[in-house]
Amino acid sequence: MSILRKAVALIGCLTVSIGAVLPVTAAPKKTVTVITDRSDFHLKPIFEAFEESTGIDVQAVFLNEGSLPARLASNADNADLYITTDLSQLATAKDQGYTQPIRTGKIRTLPRGFVDGGGHYAAISFRGRTIVYNPKKVDVKTLRGYDDLADPEYKGRVCIRPFTHVYNVTMVSEMIADRGEDYARRWVNGVKNNLAVKPNGNDRNQAKLVSQGVCDLGLMNTYYYGLLMSNKAQRPIANATELFFPNQSEKGTYTLYSGVAMAKNAKHTKEAIQLIDYLLGNVSQNYIAQSTFEYPANPKIKLSVIAEGFGEGQPGIEKGRAKFAHMNPATVAKHRETAAKILAEASK
Hints:
This protein is of the alpha/beta class. The protein folds into 2 domains: 31-125 and 256-296, D-Maltodextrin-Binding Protein, domain 2; 127-254 and 307-346, D-Maltodextrin-Binding Protein, domain 2 (3-Layer(aba) Sandwich). 41% of the residues lie in helices and 16% in strands. Strands 1, 2, 3, 4, 5, 6, 7, 8, 9, 10 and 11 form an 11-stranded mixed β-sheet that branches. Strand 1 (31-36), helix 2 and strand 2 (57-62) form a beta-alpha-beta unit. Helix 6 crosses helix 7 (181-193), helix 6 (166-179) packs across helix 14 and helix 7 (181-193) packs parallel to helix 14 (336-346). The termini are far apart.
C-alpha cells in the first residue's frame, strides 16, 4: 500500500474511532431567573412544581423583604422576572424603566385593578391589613376601623410592628391616597400615642401580645392569622384573638398585593411568560389559598377553611370575603416617599 493510501486509511480509522467515543451534546437546559423579596415559603413549592411540570429550571434569588428597589438601583439584577411583596414597588420599577409589557393574555383574566394598564405587572395574591383584637377586652360591636387604633380611648392599648416596615409604609401610602397626607400624619401620631409597648417583632408577635393582654388591639395581615391557626404550637394565640376587617362601611380594608413583572432586559422571555401563566394558573392559585392563606388573585379560587373563618361574626363578612379597598398601585406608589417620612418621624 502506498504511503498516501496508508495515510488516508489511518485518518479514516481515527474519524470512526473519535466519532464512536465523543458524547452527544445535550441541548442547553431552559431556565428563567427570578429576583424576589418574598420568602421561599411562599414561592419555592410553586417553583418546584413548575420545574417538574415544564422542565424549565427556576433560578431564584431571595432578597430581604422590601429590598428589591435597592437591588434594581444597583444595576445588578440580571433577572427575567421580579416578584415582590408589594405591587406598588413594581409600579415604581415600571416608571424607572426596569420593566416591559408582559405578552400573555393570562393576566387579562384577572379582575380590574389587578393588572397594570400597560401590562407591565400583575397581582398574584393579596392580603388584608386587619385589626387583631382581644375579644375579652374589646367588644367587636364598638369597632369601626383604622381610626380606633388612633382614638385616645385606646391609649396604652395598641401594638404594632416597627413603623417603618414595608407593610406599614404601603398601608400609610394607601391612606394618603384615600384620605390625604394630613389625615395620615394625625393617624400615625395617634397610634404612636396609644402604644402599649415599643414597636417590635412581626405581625404574629402583635397577635401574641394581644393574646397575652399586653395590648388589646394590633395591626395584622390576614395570612399571618392563618399561619397561627395552622401551627399547633401557635394556635392558642389565634384562639385567644379575633380579626376585624376595618372600614367596611367606607372604601374597605386596605390591601397589600404580591405581584410579578417582566424585567426590561429579560433574556428568557418565553420561559418567563410560562412561569407567569403558571403563577396565575389553578395549581399555584390553589396553593396560595390553601397553604399560605392569602387571597388568590383569581376570585374563582376557593379559600381555605381557615381563611373562610377570618372575621367570622362581623357583619358583612361572608366566609372570609370582605370589602377591600383595591387601590391603583401606581397611585399608591406616588405616596410611598411621604409615607416613609411620616413613619420614620414617628419612630424617633
